[in-house]
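Example record used in the benchmark description.
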Amino acid sequence: MEHKNGKLYLVSTPIGNLKDITFRAVEILESVTLIAAEDTRHSKVLLSHFNITTPLISYFEHNEFSRIPKLMDHLKGGNDLAVITDAGTPGISDPAYRLVREAIALSITVESLPGPSAFLAGLTSSGLPTDRFIFEGFLPPKKGRKKRMLSVENEEATLIYYESPSRLLRTLKQLKEALGDRPAVVARELTKLHEEIKRGTLSELFTYFDKKKARGECVILVGKNDENVYF
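Model output (structure tokens):
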């Protein structure tokens, strides 16, 4: 009898509002024999809300290389595995892609369950052009920030960055210096009670958040260097 590997599921989870989870996501999380989570303590809250009792194992940036062999053994043993992040789609600004790459190398089936994503929610509600966009993720915390910004200076696309509230002002200031005072949007606390989508130029956004301290993870969206795009 031919041995059959388990299946690797990438399961998107809510970025704030728990009602944004899909029926299929709940079904898969209930049916697999193990869930690999970025932060097991955080994920227990989500699973408890939906009465899901599947065992959890941690899988994050600092243990990924030691954890991958164990997770591959689980899959090679014929057991299904679901991967979730703290919020949103696995593989976006987290190390899930390394797990996917290893699974592909071992001919293990990978299946993605689409769902919430902070940068897509921010983009579609921003009012900036959506025909072409570049997702830059998190900028380096120290060195290399300006170089990264300048690398997309001439791209005819909406630029998208993730940023923490503590570095928001610094990033808005540096983006203006590197790219000019372009139209931009800061979307924060998306789908949550205190969701805010603030539009303006980079300098206007800096002034606004200099007076009103931002809370929660932020998505920064920067428009093309085009005088016809404005708010």
